[in-house]
Amino acid sequence: MNSNRAMMARRSDAVPRGVGQIHPIFAERAENCRVWDVEGREYLDFAGGIAVLNTGHLHPQIVAAVEDQLKKLSHTCFQVLAYEPYLALCEKMNQKVPGDFAKKTLLVTTGSEAVENAVKIARAATGRSGAIAFTGAYHGRTHYTLSLTGKVNPYSAGMGLMPGHVYRALYPCALHGVSDDEAIASIHRIFKNDAAPEDIAAIIIEPVQGEGGFYAASPAFMQRLRALCDEHGIMLIADEVQSGAGRTGTLFAMEQMGVAADITTFAKSIAGGFPLAGVTGRAEVMDAIAPGGLGGTYAGNPIACAAARRYYRFSSRRICWKKPTSSATPCAGLLAIAEDHPEIGDVRGLGAMIAIELFEEGDRSRPNAADGGYRRPRPRQRPDPALLRAVLQRAAHPGAADHRRGADRAGAQDHRRLL
């Protein structure tokens, strides 16, 4: 029988160490919100493949759509022999992405590809080369998206200089003392000291930061950012790779901001676990690149497109992208817990995209890395068991949604049993 320890040893010999692994566990099968490892142990999946499984593992409707497509064709490359699933999904995204204007959509495979193409399109449309990203941003692991990402370790440490003409503005975050005014002022400082606005092709922002800590920009800030871009002819790119696909209570977080981006990127849960990403933008902007300048061998694979079309067909009925009343949100329940547990320094997020930040003895200047980090804490460092039980029992959904009937009602019992 395989063991996790034996497979970790094999992994060490076969896989580069740069491919990190949070848990020393190897999954063998999964269903709904549960995963079983190679030793037969059962787990609740609070990771969801890094925000990819809003539908849970192997949702029957996703599986049925994929099986049906596999009987027809698996790959041709859309640029060589086009196929209807790609076209139909682009039509759907043109309808669903925020913005009261004509749109076109490009399909690719990964979120990093989507961001790369979004900036490439913005540069072609404006004839400019510069881009502004924000502190705390995460936009991908490819060479250019590493320049946009606002964190060196572990993503680009030791790799030397990244591509230039990328400038860093402050992301608005009241918890860390950055107001909307200060964030806007930081962009004006870039215009004054680093690059004239006439040299900036795009400002790219996550309406809710993912890897940066689930900080949500305010609608007021996004509206000011939209006005600033309009004033200077700059493309506003909304990176909704993490915040899209219904995680925030609406299909896209930008729906709650009162403005639309010129270009929107999406990926993650868009295809229920299959690799698919894309870029949707103003039609005239998306047409800025000549034929042959966009695409990819596997971009918009028909199997992934079939999964995404089915995802949109049934998921609009799921609670995760219907805005619940304020008293019913996961945040509201967790805030109630925080009142009795000073270790919880902050609870924040939109919809089901939530962060719980732990601090030592309630001191917000001392983040509790031991209890919140990836490494295993020593026994004396473990957080209060009552706190863990309360958080788990009041969380609305695990990272991978359970699609069974009655799953919401059974959630608390599942948590108690598996704890």
Annotate the secondary structure layout.
Layout: H1 4-14, E1 27-31, E2 34-37, E3 42-44, H2 48-51, H3 60-70, H4 84-96, E4 103-108, H5 111-126, E5 130-134, H6 143-148, E6 166-169, H7 180-193, E7 200-205, H8 219-232, E8 235-239, E9 263-266, E10 277-282, H9 283-286, H10 302-315, H11 330-338, E11 344-350, E12 353-358, H12 369-372, H13 385-394, H14 407-418
Parallel strand pairs: 5-6, 5-7, 7-8, 8-9
Antiparallel strand pairs: 1-2, 2-3, 4-10, 9-10, 11-12
Helix pairs in contact: 3-10, 4-10, 11-13, 13-14
Organism: Klebsiella pneumoniae
Family: Belongs to the class-III pyridoxal-phosphate-dependent aminotransferase family.
Pfam family, one: Aminotran_3
Annotation keywords:
single chain; 419 residues; alpha/beta; Aspartate Aminotransferase, domain 2; seven-stranded mixed sheet; three-stranded antiparallel sheet; 12 strands; 15% strand; globular; disordered C terminus; pyridoxal phosphate; identical protein binding
Give the assembly state of these chains: single chain
Strand order of the largest sheet: 4-10-9-8-7-5-6
Radius of gyration based on Cα positions: 22 Å
What is the N-to-C succession of helices and strands? Answer: HEEEHHHEHEHEHEHEEEHHHEEHHH
Which class of the largest domain in CATH terms? Alpha Beta
Percent of sequence in beta strands: 5-15%
